[in-house]
Amino acid sequence: MNIVRTIADLRGEIARWRVAGQSIALVPTMGALHAGHIALVGAALSIADQVVVSIFVNPTQFAPNEDLARYPRDEAGDVAKLAGAGAHLVWAPNVAEMYPPGFATQVAVGGAALPLEGEFRPHHFGGVATVVCKLLSSVTPNIALFGEKDFQQLAVIRQMVRDLALPVAIHGVPTVREEDGLALSSRNAYLSEDERYIAPMLYKVITDVARGRDPDEAGQALLAAGFAKLDYIAVRDAETLGPFQPGTGRPGRVLAAVWLGKTRLIDNVSC
């Protein structure tokens, strides 16, 4: 399995695949890979001839008070997992390659980016959209795969691809969970043993909301269980992230963001 670190080398590999008439899938990641990421690779292998996995901790989606410096990094371990999973190419650029001196262009997002995470992390999705747009333009994949664990991110990326008429299909892959229901996340490594015991309560509560439980009551139950703070539990339209209108036939989604100790957990389920 090849590892490339520059856009020029990446495009050289892509060009060879294109000449051979092969389809290409991209799995964007920030590393610290777990079984959820490997599920994305498996899904990509089932629908494309060649699978590129990017590893890049994107600084522009972190606010100054967030965890960029301590975000878990393990490139050697990640590469070993990807080789075992059957990925064909790892693209691991550094910050200077992605944001060279003089870089001054950003993707401005609205719509699905504005509520929920957009209220608590107002610059986050601009950074996400910018880096994903650059990843897509660099790899030029036929398909890009994202986990439903970050459901609002998936909605924002789908919106960006539609709005900018980007020639790529976006596939969402269902959230991978531990046996007790906790959604897999690189940030789960931050949880203490006691916090890890409490964490699955989030999935239980949002599942109850999907079945009709009042979101405010569900939030109080999380606080009573030991969660430190509740950013939101909301039932939204699954495409626009606007208000959910029951009875219209449109799919809904329960989304939540909560704090357990110093760790922010997000999760979602369909309704």
Could you list the spans in which at least 5 consecutive residues all have pLDDT below 50? none
The residue fraction in helices comes out at 25-40%
The CATH architecture of the largest domain is 3-Layer(aba) Sandwich
Using the coordinates above, name the CATH class of the largest domain: Alpha Beta
Strand order in the sheet with the most strands: 1-4-3-2-5-6
Gross geometry: globular
Largest sheet: 6 strands, parallel
Query: How many domains make up the 3D coordinates?
Result: 2
- The CATH H-level superfamily of the largest domain is HUPs
Overall radius of gyration: 19 Å
Strand composition percent: 15-25%
According to CATH, the fold-level topology of the largest domain is Rossmann fold
Order of helices and strands: EHEHEHEHHHEHEHHHEEE
**Mean pLDDT across all amino acids:** 97
Alpha-carbon distance between the two ends: 40 Å
Number of helices: 10
Number of strands: 9
Which structural class is indicated by helix and strand composition? alpha/beta
List the helices and strands and how they pair.
Blueprint: E1 2-4, H1 7-19, E2 24-29, H2 35-45, E3 50-55, H3 75-85, E4 89-91, H4 95-98, H5 117-120, H6 124-139, E5 143-147, H7 151-163, E6 169-173, H8 193-198, H9 201-210, H10 215-225, E7 229-237, E8 252-260, E9 263-270
Parallel strand pairs: 1-4, 2-3, 2-5, 3-4, 5-6
Antiparallel strand pairs: 7-8, 8-9
Helix pairs in contact: 6-7, 9-10
